[in-house]
Amino acid sequence: MQPTPEQTDAVDKFRKGGALKINAFAGTGKTTTLRLLSEASGGRGLYLAFNRSIAEDAKAKFPKNTTCSTIHSIAFRATPQAYRRGDKMTAAMNANAVASHLGYSDLVVDGVRLTPRSRGHLTLETLRKFMQGGLAAIERRHVPRLGKLEILHDDTLAKLDAMTVEDAMGLWRRMCDPADQIPLGHDGYLKMWALSRPRIAADFVLLDEAQDTNPVVLEVLRRQVAQIVYVGDRHQQIYEWRGAVNAMERIDTPNEAHLTTSFRFGDGIASAASRVLERLGETRALSGNPAVTSYIGCDGADAVVARTNASVISTVLRELQAGRAPHVIGGVGELVRMLRGVEYLKRGEPSDVTEFFGFENWNEVVEHTKTPEGRNLKTFVGLVESHGEARLIQKLQETRQDEAGADVVVSTAHKAKGREWDTVELADDFLPAQPSDDEDGPPRIDEAEIRLFYVALTRAKTAVEVAPAAVAQFGVTPGPRLSRAARPSKTAASAPQAASAGFPTSRQRRRAADATSSPSRPVRVATPPRPAPPTRAAAGGGTWIWIALAIGVLWLVFR
Q1: Which residues neighbour 394 within 8 Å (Cβ) at sequence distance 6 or greater?
Q2: Which residues of the chain have pLDDT under 70?
């Protein structure tokens, strides 16, 4: 493949030496660009992937001089042998185990009762923020504001924070003791390795998805003598709520390159995404693939991308009601666990679900949604009140476990990161308005919400279905829509009426597209139904032919 001028510029700047930032918009071929960098170097390289599946996929693409791995894999291999006993390295603790180890009992602060399990959860979350952070010690800033804690007075919070920090420090000391039964877990051995000030054996390091990197990783890279290349899209930072930082904005490098032409979609989607980027302060435009025609608007979609878990549940209900078989990216375990938390609360038992932290019963959660702090739970509470948690769990368990066998894929925008589909529908829960800083001013949209919308908008290759009001906020007016055939369910595809109607299943559409599509053809062409074999009545003179053959055989035998 002939490199683009932007990719050639990135290679040239890499050859100069020194740290390099490559700002890569959605779908602009950053992995290919990093491979070109590796091929241009004669030194030892390390490609750090966002997760293990990406690292495994990269091994087949990168040259032999570059090792493809995750930072956790490197830290695991470097951990001393004394920690390799049993499951000390990889086991995870839950809130109940922490409460047991630390001997917790009920604690009441400003009228909010924290059960042993709730206190264990708070300590675990504090420890998690420390392990993923860049600091060498646990501090008050690591204690999260979960659930009902947001409404406590500052003096009360200060006392609770001090108590939690002390408990977390004690737990961390035991985790770092190879003779203690409390496990390190994946974040634990990574933090312990980072605190040892390791030196990575590489001449250059390629950090992918740098806009969502944990501070603990950035701190390790900061100490290296190797050439560091940070690649990512600063506008796709969507994990800051989990403690990730945007290295594409935070770190200054002597060299900087840009990838602005998408290979994924055409100008229809690219121009809309550019208007969103303008709102985020971006001065460069995202260009579309000239060989691809893309649309804002389509009838039927391969995937539905939602902002919240509540909207994922709503979409699953809708698809099942329509007779289609949905698959939820990442599985339904997290959603079911949240609904099990509702069952706890309705029995008057506190739940360790983060969203329900500090609430003693379900009525408290319902009342909380009527306040500004509880607006994010409003849709979820409405679903539970309308359908009941038992029915919602039942419906979630009816989803397809395998993506290949589903009629439609459903995902949150966070779990859709790095994925792409031919056509995508965006749920209507994106871009929630926030109260204006000015009492008389119009509602505002938080930048984090705009970035999440940008990520969701750019998951489609051919067409994206989005509410006109959503894109209108960025001055985008949808043009012609991509029209597609109705989507039958796979479970119904074997029924006579589905076959006689000639509607292709989603798998048939994919096979047809693989066989017939070209970069300039946006509409999938379905393989027509295979004609049925001719019946005996339609076979014409077939019977007389068989009689004649039989007479000929008899004549040969008895002549």
Answers
A1: none
A2: 435-443, 484-559
